[in-house]
Sequence to fold (334 residues):
Amino acid sequence: MALVATPRKLLEKSDFYHQFSVLLQSGIPLLESLDTLRRSLPAGEIASRVQPVSEGIGRGLSLTESLLQSRFPIASFDTALLAAGERSGRLDECLRLLGEFYRTRAELTRKVWTECTYPLLVVHVAVFLAPITTLVLKGDVAGYLAAVCLVLVPFYAVLLGLVWILQTEHQDGMRRILERVFSSIPLLGAARADLALSRLALGLEALLNAGVPVFEAWRVASIASGSFRLRQSALIWIERAEERGLSPGELLPKEPVYPELFSGLYRTGEMSGSLDNSLRRLYAHYLEEGMRKMKLAADWGPKLLYFGIALWVAFRVVSFYSTMFGNYQKVLDQ
Fold:
């Protein structure tokens, strides 16, 4: 799997899920749909994994098991949703939702990359200009290159580290730390929390429709949400609910990780027998809110970065001319 989930990679996954969904909705059998995908998808990591997936299904594995065994680039959320889709007979709908999810993520990633292009260009210009006094006044090429590398090497190390952190699934300890860090960042933290709730609602709706017992559905969906806080909270209150014979709706309002809207609408759906409808509404609401906040973060993040870079460049320019005129003054004084 690629280190960085580029917009192109995300679109490839979106197209795979979308085309797979369309084929199944058309009534084409599973193996025949995979064979069609193998021949129609452009060459790439996903296309190369389709044949092993088909072979796994031919050996009696489920689609989800075969995807995992063939090292298909699949996230834990995808796994939980597809497994629920297979059990409920709604695999085509789950594939459609995943296609939409990855297309939206690809568009958002492309937007962020595009918005960051100019600030990053300014960074490089500033880095190459900042130590120019070393080159112009002293003719020290080695010193100039060393000064440039001293900034760019750590810069790219931090940049690649951030990309890896944002796009890779981590162990519990790292996930807990990252969630605390991101929750303190305006817009981004709230956006990630809303998207985790949307994945939780979607996973619950799919799992419950698949006939999975309610507490088991909560365990799996909480893990698939990608949020350490949601997962840990669920594991604690589920044990308490099972011991006391309580339903999830009775305990959710007491858990601070669930917003009032989420716990209230879930409780209403649970009591009225329309939990499916409540979960679909929660999914749509938190997905819309999460994407809205994420787009705002994508808009303002690069702007703030550019503003910070502009201030730094201005400081370096002033420092350069101050040093240069200071040297001229020393020459004149002599």
